[in-house]
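Structure tokens please, single chain.
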Amino acid sequence: MPFTKTELGIKAFQERSALMNARQRAVFVLINGVRDTSTILRLTSGLNVGVEDLAHLYHKGLIGRAMAPSHGAAIVDSQFQSAFARPAPSASRALDDAARYQLAKTLASQISGSLGLLGLPLNIVVEAASDCEGLRALLPRLRKAAGPERCQELERVLTS
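Here you go.
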């Protein structure tokens, strides 16, 4: 199944967003609307890229399905179909909370880390936060130290 890059994906890639890890960035570079899943996985085999990395990009809206070429497109096997199928609503909610926490913690760490020594106390509190509620409580302190514009993405992740 070939994929194309979405506007959101291009923006996230250019801004080095926490929505993509290093493996997923490598995959994103190879997506051109022509290469199918198996080709991308073969090209990134040395990076330990798996179907779950492609599925992550797809479910986050960073890539989309391309129109399949009419000249003998390969049929997608069941492994790929199951990876790209939407999870059941109850499983999706639990995954979303865990993913939201990981993303929010990464963003908060980047913000507090960018403040140098002044951000050290905030960084310690960020690392101690065990859930999204703890990070939400820390948001006003981060906004005050780093400015509201630098905390916009973190706020969006924590309130969505």
